[in-house]
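Lecture 7 notes: from sequence to structure.

We start with a single chain of 252 residues. Read the sequence below before looking at the structure.
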Amino acid sequence: MKTYIIDLDGTMYSGDKNIDGAIEFINYLQGKNIPYIFLTNNATRTKKQAKEHMLNLGFKNIKDEDFFTSAIAAAKYAAKNFSERNCFVIGEAGLIEALKEEGFHIVDKNADFVFVGLDRKADYRKYSNAIHNILSGAKFIATNTDRLLPNNGNFDVGNGSTVAMLEYATQIESVKIGKPYSKILDILLDEYKLRKEDIILIGDNLETDIKLGYDSKIKTIMVATGVHSKEDIDRLKVYPTNFIHNLKELIK
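Now the structure, written as tokens:
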């Protein structure tokens, strides 16, 4: 049986609004005992916060362990590949929790790493302190490089803009973890003991969700409820295996 790897922002919900068909699709998977994992580039929420957000939107039987985020992947990547544990963080609760679970210590200076996730309270001073640490030799790790974040039918600036700013300022390229980069997929497959042929990726974003699957030769389903439309496929030259307008189309 295939495991569905499902995006959140733009696929399940937009901000604090449900996306039509999402609850019905998850109810269908649960009723048929079809396995699924929510794979999100959004590094702001902890697993518990992500669960509560979906429950508040009307989803049922959602568990902490259903979620795998770019924050979790970034922390696991660094913990596996490096022995140092001091880090400077631009990010919110989800990234901080993930790092602490892997034994990292949050510091302001003399950091071994600078982790950059979406941080809606970050300011000029915090960005400058990140630059100081990167220029002093800290490894620069980006949870994700999303251009836009769907929010209640509109779009907010994504973490990719912050990453691009810091790369421009330091002239140092970050290690990129989240979709469409293969690191997040490799870590997820290892964590859940899955193979590429065991999964189907579902998402709304051609530049992240679908490109990850396209580049990795994994089956993908694009749903036109978020960032991109069908017209964007040829423009971006990223081709999903299947295209749907609503997740209800997958209910059999």
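Residues 8 and 243 are 17 Å apart (CA to CA). Keep this in mind for problem set 3.
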